[in-house]
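YM 10:42: HTH tetR-type domain-containing protein sequence, as discussed on the call
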Amino acid sequence: MPKIIDHDQRRREIVAVAKKLIIQGGFEAATMRSIVAEAGFANGALKRYFPNKDSIVAATFQSVLAEMNEQIGSDEPSPDPREALRHDVEATLPLDQYRIDSARVLLALWEHSVSNDELAALYRAHLQDWRRRLAERIAAARGKGEPADAPAVIELAGEVIGVTIGANVTALMFPDGALIPEHRAYVDRLMRNLDD
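YM 10:58: structure's back
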């Protein structure tokens, strides 16, 4: 009897291998040949799941963004709007090894998306959704009855996104987590100064 293959599982395995190779050696390390070798597939087997490297890159990008969104929504949101905001901000900062590794993958993929319109559109949509969610959380946490599109709220959401992206970039230079206390201190300052 022929072996039944779960093709969706195979795709997830290939994406996991691509992510691992990017973490270890950057975007250039995730070649079709290295992915096939690391995954233990025959040479032609990879094309059955992904026709080219760009399709693997797109799937890896989507996977990392989905993991990030899952991290944000991993816990039941606190009924306290301030704690819900804290949770969401901390979920996007490189505060553990898993998130530091994910930052490495995201940064490699961001660079690639500059020359790939499909990936750029995917990331822009992610940024817009992230900004919207963050603005809603900030407006609720400030407790002033402001709408999520109030200028002060939008400005603060932009600041948080900018700091988060910067923290993910600098985490690459400190993969041992040396900057984690600094990132936690930022979250504490943000929460203290939320009403300003």
